[in-house]
User: Which sequence fits this backbone?
């Protein structure tokens, strides 16, 4: 029997990419590196990165929260 899949669509951003986006947001290095520059480096669309910054990705936020609880 297979494990159940989480509900919703699969994000186009990997967990590691999401952590990089959050790190840039946390550091607020807007003058040094923009989200569109980061999107090009990661091979993603600019809108995808901006959406992740504004709305977040709930399943990754939950995974980050879970990691913090384990520490």
Assistant:
């Amino acid at each position: 029997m297979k494990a159940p899949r989480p509900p919703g669509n699969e994000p186009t951003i990997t967990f590691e990419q999401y952590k990089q986006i959050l790190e840039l947001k946390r550091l607020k290095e807007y003058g040094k590196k923009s989200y569109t520059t980061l999107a090009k480096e990661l091979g993603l669309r600019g809108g995808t990165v901006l959406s992740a910054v504004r709305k977040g990705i709930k399943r990754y936020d939950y995974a980050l929260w879970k990691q913090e609880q384990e520490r």
In short: The two ends are 32 Å apart (CA to CA). The mean pLDDT is 82. The first helix runs from residue 15 to 27.
